[in-house]
Amino acid sequence: ILNSAYTNLEAKGIVPVFERAGVYSILLDDKVVYIGKSHNILYRMAQHYAGMQRLSNHKYRVLSEARRYGH
Description:
Helix content: 40-55%
Low-confidence stretches: none
Strand order of the largest sheet: 1-2
Distance between the termini: 23 Å
Mean pLDDT: 78
């Protein structure tokens, strides 16, 4: 799941911008619900997307539920 999420993000053309270290945030209804840092933001984003698909952690269940209801 992680590789397909990473490939999907690559296909959207965001590799040059996010394949580097930095701080990122996850927004829900235009509100910051999570702030993180990573050595490779693109890879970390892929981990978050994969986690939402697997529902492997409470935060991913919450994000997946919110996404399902259009938030």
